Amino acid sequence: SQENLTDWGLGDWIPVKSKTPVEFTSSIYYYVDATILAKAAKIFGKEDDYIKYSSLANKIKKSFNNKYLNKETGEYASCNQTEQSTALYWGIVPKESIELVANKLAEHVIKDKKHIDVGLLGSKTILNALSDNGYSELAYEVASQETYPSWGWWIANGLSTLPENWDLEKKENDISNNHIMFGEISAWYYKAIGGIKPDQNNPGFKNIILEPNFIPNLNFFEAKFDGPQGEIISSWKRAKEKIIYHLIIPPNSTANLKLKAESISENMIKYVTKKGKGVFYLNLGAGEYEIEII
Questions:
Q1: With 80 as the cut, is the pLDDT of residue 171 above it?
Q2: Smallest Cα–Cα separation from 65: which of 30, 35, 104, 92?
Q3: What is the distance of C-alpha 157 from the center of its chain?
Q4: Which of 36, 184, 235, 290 has its CA 20 to 30 A from that of 219?
Q5: Can you give the pLDDT at residue 20?
Q6: Quick one: which of 205, 261, 260 has its CA closest to 233?
Q7: How far is CA 167 from the centre of its chain?
Q8: Are 147 and 115 in contact (CB under 8 A)?
Q9: Given the DSSP bridges, would you call strands 254-260 and 230-239 parallel, antiparallel or unpaired?
């Protein structure tokens, strides 16, 4: 690659309308790959490789942000949904710019009438980047649209599988009607609303990261996941002014739970390890829990 960037690949394949430079998305994945190699080298005790790939990842990140990020405005390139969200989701945004970049993403999504304007790679990141950065309600609105362009548009038109194009009027022979490439939305429901996430430091869901988002316009949600240690359940429902959160952590597992709340039921206070403004952090062992949240 030249100057630590690369334009190898197909880029944000089949976008709705806005086109992202191939170099933009391919360089992000170049950064992600280098980061994965560095982490793997560390685990396997390959110190020289760890130093090599950590250095490469840092060089890619620096070159990428020097070329594409406007630090004053928080805009990447043309500031479309794919550009803002891929940078956020894959962790290439400098720490001091994350909030500003996320704000610009949210502004752009609202400008697009809360509909998607992404291709393959942006469909992986758009909902996650919003919900991971304080915009879970907006992400849910995007995910729930039923007019074009959206996932719901397919359902409204009678589809029960994922097609290869947002536009159902496309007649090309190579368009599949059973294609997983836009399927990240399924995982997003588990991660963002149910809040079930893996812990990189304790693989196989030996420790579970739980960060549920209680969407204002949603009265009930339940996520069940069959992990290696057993079934994980994260569900919640509204009960007048309260939220009842039900949680099952399987045997031989633990969980770090982050709850957005002003107060929680008295029986859970003993598990609290840290408290912030409107947020509680709890460490939990295997078992079944029911938490009242205000």
A1: no
A2: 92
A3: 27
A4: 184
A5: 98
A6: 205
A7: 24
A8: yes
A9: unpaired
- pLDDT tens for residues 5-33? 999 999 999 999 999 999 999 999 999 99
Per-residue CA distances from 57 to 49, 50, 54, 227 (Å): 12, 11, 5, 31
What type of residue sits at position 170?
K
Cα separation of 103 and 70, whole Å? 14
- pTM (global) more than 0.90: yes
Question: Cβ distance 219 to 193 under 8 Å?
Answer: no
Structure confidence by residue, pLDDT tens digits, 29-81: 999 999 999 999 999 999 999 999 999 999 999 999 999 999 999 999 999 99
Between residues 177 and 105, the one the model is more confident about: 105
Of residues 199 and 2, more confidently modeled: 199
Beta carbons of 227 and 199 less than 8 angstroms apart:
no
Q: Which two tokens stand for residue 31?
A: 């950064």
- In this structure, what token pair is assigned to residue 17? 């309308």
Strand order in the sheet with 272-276: 196-198, 207-210, 254-260, 279-284, 272-276
